[in-house]
Design goal:
3 helices, alpha+beta, two-stranded antiparallel ribbon, Cathepsin B, Chain A, 210 residues, 5-stranded mixed beta sheet, 2 domains
Length: 210
């Protein structure tokens, strides 16, 4: 969808952080709850922080995740922004008219089924258990070896492959491009490593709205 600055707008991540089905907001929740909200309540468009793209651009400034960089360090859990049901000044259409809905959302189980879903409909969302050795990831296929469990983390699974005989998922993280392999990582595929294949959610947008 074209935004008000000529850039491409997309369903707002900010809207998704506040969904009641994932009640902890910025402090956690369940991916399936956010997808259910998309199908039932809809999401308005948005863009990156301070981009003025879409109806509700992301409102939380970027910070550094587990690396020393130019941004201030992330401070951990924070307050979830209040829901403002109005688009930013100068943006049209209205908040209500800008809503985009999913026609269906569903779970996907099993590595072959996940691959088939990605091949047919594009990336899926997953969640996995993050251990302290994952924070140091730079390249290769991640396999947990040592360190304490830090918590759960939601990610985007974009594709799959094999590297040096090891099957992997190609995953997009949300920790900026200076973490990992330009913001991406690979993780062992086919063994539900760290629970990566246990909580896969996907969905289909309602094409009639476009």
């Amino acid at each position: 969808m074209p935004g008000n600055s000529g850039q491409t707008a997309r369903p707002s991540e900010r809207s998704e952080t506040r969904v009641p089905a994932a009640p902890a907001g910025c402090n956690g929740g369940f991916p399936s709850g956010a997808w259910n909200f998309w199908t039932k309540q809809g999401l308005v468009s948005g863009g990156l922080y301070n981009s003025h793209v879409g109806c509700r651009p992301y409102s939380i400034p970027p910070c550094e995740h587990h690396v020393n960089g130019s941004r201030p360090p992330c401070t951990g859990e924070g307050d979830t922004p209040k829901c403002s049901k109005i688009c930013e000044p100068g943006y049209t259409p209205s908040y209500k008219e800008d809503k985009h809905f999913g026609c269906s959302s569903y779970s996907v189980s099993g590595s072959k089924e996940i691959m088939a879903e990605i091949y047919k409909n594009g990336p899926v969302e997953g969640a996995f258990s993050v251990y302290s050795d994952f924070l140091l990831y730079k390249s290769g296929v991640y396999q947990h070896v040592t360190g304490e469990m830090m918590g759960g983390h939601a990610i985007r699974i974009l594709g799959w492959g094999v590297e040096n005989g090891t099957p992997y998922w190609l995953v997009g993280n949300s920790w900026n491009t200076d973490w990992g392999d330009n913001g991406f990582f690979k993780i062992l595929r086919g063994e539900d490593h760290c629970g990566i294949e246990s909580e896969i959610v996907a969905g289909i947008p309602c094409t009639r709205q476009y």
